[in-house]
Amino acid sequence: MITVTDLTKKYARTTAVDHISFSVSKGDIVGFLGPNGAGKTTTMRMLTCFLPPTEGKATVAGFDVFEQSMEVRRRIGYLPESPPLYLEMETIEYLRFVGRLKGLSGADLEKRVAYVLDRCAIADVKTRLLSKLSKGYRQRVGLAQAIIHNPDVLILDEPTAGLDPKQINETRDLIKSLAGDHTIILSTHILPEVEQTCESVIIINKGKLVATDSVHNLQARARGAESVLVNVGVRSGEFPLSIVRDRLQRISGVSGTTLKEEFPGGALFEIESSRGQLVRGDLARAIVEAGWDLNELRPSAMSLEEIFLQLTGSDAAASSNTPPEPGPPADAPASEANA
Amino acid sequence: MRNMWIICRRELSSYFASPIAWLLLAMYSIIFGWIFWNFLAEFIKQSQDMMMMGQTQPMNVNEQIIRPLLGTSSFLGLFMIPLISMRLFAEEKRNGTIELLATSPVRDIEIIIGKWFSATLLYCWIIIFACVNFVFLFRYGNPDWKPMLVTLLGVFLQGAALLAVGTFISTLTKNQIIAAAMTFGACLLLWVFSWVSSYDSSTWAQVFSYLSVITHFDTFDRGVLSTKDAIYYLSVIFVGLFFTARSMESLRWRS
Questions:
Q1: Phi, psi (rounded to 5 degrees) for A52
Q2: Which ranges in chain B belong to alpha helices (H)?
């Protein structure tokens, strides 16, 4: 459905996107992942025909984004980082306008408007001014305008940014429910979001492609060793930390113990073992036989977060938690130009 | 064509939803009305004076009321035009709605003409609304309506031309106030260019004088329909919208 080959975007002094290639097949829901300023927004803007690429090629449903821009635009629904709402309009009026803009008219238009009002759960605010809506509702109206013309491809730029946890869940569910009919690319810098919503993931950092694979494969690939979290405690007296650690270390198959957390009367260890070795039973037995309490024992699957850090290196990890640095200006090209 | 109309309609409803259209309508009507009644009172006093003195010099409603009034209204337009055109693109850029327009299956030129046309419609509507005052002249007097319409056409053309310039300026910034200030400056400059002709007649002076909007308004003001001057206004519109299109294109490459 979407094919990107050597896509590059250069600004006056920086390269925001550097020879990226990937493809997305029909009906997929793909997470576009990277720290702030990695080039996510720039790539999406090129796919939606907002920005022409400097080099390379991108096609959507077989149409080139530059040469056959109108065809691509008819097939794409786009939700930019901040929903593009005309605040002085009413919800329904706004949706009708966008619908007409995308080529709908007459009974068709009314049918689609009614459908998206229902689908995005915004029917109760349809005669409210957009300026009076809360952030969560605005985001849903933004989604509604993106799907109003039933596009083949949906491109969502940080659809859950700035929402509260309840709204985030609602938005994620809505996106997941749309996946069947549409091919979806959504960008985010929040890793659990990709784990929860997407089937595959494209990771970029500093404008370069780092990895592209299914979420499942990535987790498997990065998991060289298995690890288990153990919470051990004693009911009275001092917790014999070094003794406990030595005991755990001596269990056959255990290749390492790390103290994750220490608290009064107990501690949390991460136990690593080589793949295939089932050490959980031995661990439990050893702890109970020694007379300590086994408060918790659970496998720790390697999260995307760790995979991500492993793939992008630690400097990227630092910048994922801080505002964009004077690197590629993908998310804030305008302010970059002013600087 | 259809897309242009969709854009134009939304712009118009937006003008009336934000109170700017109502505000301009009200203020313009008050100012225009005040000037109208002043001209009228002066006209009546003059005609009374003449009757007292027994003079029978012909008096002309067209020459003494309508013409100076419409001349003034083209000047008043100078203040109104920046307020109409400032938001056209600046607001879209600030709110991010430009991304919606630019990624919809609509050509840039349709967006531009739709927006400019909505601004021009609003401007014409404000002028026509103020001209309701003329009903009294037709009821109690006998003015000639043909030169009046020509002068009105001149006012509309001048407004449309300056609005095209304003549309272009609005693409340059996210800030509506800056857009308004720059448009006001540009309008004023195009106005005072003609002053050079009062003391100089070199080629440069002629060029500047030709570029001035007011030079071309004079013929319309006299009630003369002149193709040459209409073409000037149409070219300003064309150049203004052409630059708007180029500016929007560069927006895509840069942002």
A1: -80, 140
A2: 2-17, 20-53, 61, 67-85, 87-95, 98-102, 108-130, 134-140, 145-170, 176-192, 203-211, 213-221, 227-254
- Closest CB from A80, A86, A98 relative to B99: A80
Its pTM stands at 0.81
**Whether pLDDT at A93 is above 90:** yes
Contact criterion met (CB < 8 Å) for B103 and A48: yes
User: Does residue A266 sit in the same domain as residue A177?
Assistant: no
Mean pLDDT calculated for residue range A264-272 = 84
Q: Strand, helix or coil at A137?
A: helix
Is residue A331 over pLDDT 60?
no
Of A45, A70, A84, the CB nearest to B97: A84
Query: Cβ contact (<8 Å) for A73 and B103?
Result: yes
Per-residue pLDDT band for A283 (boundaries 50, 70, 90) equals confident
Query: B96 and A74 in contact by Cβ < 8 A?
Result: no
Domain coverage including residue A273:
225-299
pLDDT tens, position by position, A155-190: 999 888 778 888 888 888 888 888 878 899 998 877
CA distance between the termini of chain B: 28
With a cut of 50, list the residues of chain B below it in pLDDT.
none
Q: What is the CA radius of gyration of chain B?
A: 20
CB contact under 8 A, B95 and A87: yes
Instruction: Clarify whether residues A47 and A156 are in a common domain.
Output: yes
Find the largest Cα–Cα distance for chain B: 74
- Candidates B15, B99, B115, partner chain A, best to mutate (most A CBs within 10 A): B99
Q: Is the pLDDT of residue A317 over 80?
A: no
Q: Which domain holds residue B148?
A: 2-254
How many structural domains does chain A have? 2
Nearest to B252 among A52, A70, A102 (CB): A52
Q: Which residue among B13, B95, B105 sits closest to A103, beta carbon to beta carbon?
A: B105
pLDDT at residue A189, as a whole number:
77
For chain B, the average pLDDT equals 89
β pairing state of A63-64 and A55-60:
antiparallel
Pick among A49, A75, A86 to test the B interface (most B CBs inside 10 A):
A86
Best to test chain B binding among A101, A145, A152 (most B CBs inside 10 Å):
A101
pLDDT confidence bin for A319, thresholds 50/70/90: very low
This model of the complex carries an ipTM of: 0.88
Do A72 and A209 lie in one domain? The reply is yes
Please state, in angstroms and rounded to a whole number, the distance separating the CA atoms of residues B212 and B202: 16
